[in-house]
Every structure is written in structure tokens, then in C-alpha cells.
Amino acid sequence: MNVFKFGGASVKDAQGVKNVATVLQQTGHTNLVIVVSAMGKMTNALEGVVNCYFQEPAKVKQALEDIKAYHWSISKEIFTDLNAPVFRQIQTLITTLSSFLQTNKSTNQAYVYDQVVGYGELLSTTIVSAYLTQKAIKNNWVDIRTCIVTDASFRDASVDWQTTKQQIVKNIAPTGITITQGFLAAEATNNFTTTLGREGSDYTAAITCLLFKRSKCYHLERCSWGFKCRS
Question: What is the pTM of this model?
């Protein structure tokens, strides 16, 4: 079992998503965990939503529309069927995020940050997984929050290694291709989303690699000729 990590720049547009499939086809890997970051500068955009929520709430609706439009635009370029389920999945994620912002009562900015910003990875992995399926690359989408367990230190959570190992073994198959999110985790008491700090996707890949015996971790970075790889 190896781990491939695709950063935000690697999947920032339709060509980047297509390249993920190309990498898998060319390398022939079949037993993989693929960790995907939020697309492009989406983490920054979602941080903007958090700032609007606390400082300029009237701007939240438009900020969410812009985020939906970005992912919708990429999806329209890569999916041959505009009625494909992925479009409903994107809408459901945006609706769920909007509902959280409308009903949340907490004034803890770090807590709100983690509940909001993680949608970047949920959206990116949903799109990548659906595209691989369209290309006949069988894969299993896994919510990493069911695997990586932390304390409740929002924005910079500490991993509970023993529980995380148990959950990874339980939820990630040692064979086949698993698509999952970087950056995200969940705290044990209430299952609220936590994050592992900026550049947390690298940490996610390292955690997954460490807890699978005899695995290797590869970071795929987009460049002018396609991808370059560092292990």
C-alpha cells in the first residue's frame, strides 16, 4: 500500500483532475491511498467565508455562490453527463455548509474555521473520485474524519495515535484505491471536524503512510511537463 498526495495546485483546474487519472494509468498502481488537498486557493476562499461570517455576514451568501461556481465550472469540463451525480453532491455539500453557518451558535472562531474550511477537501475529493469512476478507475471515497482522531484543539489538533491507527485499519482497505482528504480530522467527544494546521495534507499523508506497514509516500506536484514526484 502506497500513499499519493496531490496538493491544491495539482488539482486546481480540470486538467489537473484529468492528470490524476493519467498518473494512475501510467504508473499502474492498484493499492493506493490518494490524499487530495482543496483545489487551488480554495482554503483561502473558505477562510474568506469565515471572515465574512464574523465581520460582514451579508457577504456570506455570495462567497458561497462563488465557491460553488468554481467547482461547478471544473466539473462541467470533465464530466460528459451534466446530470451526473457529482453535481448533486457538490450542491449538497454547499447546502450543508450554508445550513451550518445559518444555525451555528458558537462564537469560537477556531471552531467555526474548522467546520467551514474543511469543505474544500470534501469538494475536491468528491470531484476527483467521481472523475476516476468515469474513467473506469475503481475507487472508494473515504471521509478521513472517520480515521484520524484528535483532541479538540481547533485549527491545530493533536492526533490520538492509538485510536487513529485502529480507525485507519478499520476504514481504509489495504487493497484497491482509496480517495480521501488531507488536512481534516475529527475530535473524539462530539465528532466535530478539526484540522491539522496549514499544510496539513502533507501531515495526513505522512500519518497514513506511517500507520500502514511497508508503505511509501509520494507527493505529486504539478509542473510544466505534468507532475514531479518527491517521496
Answer: 0.93
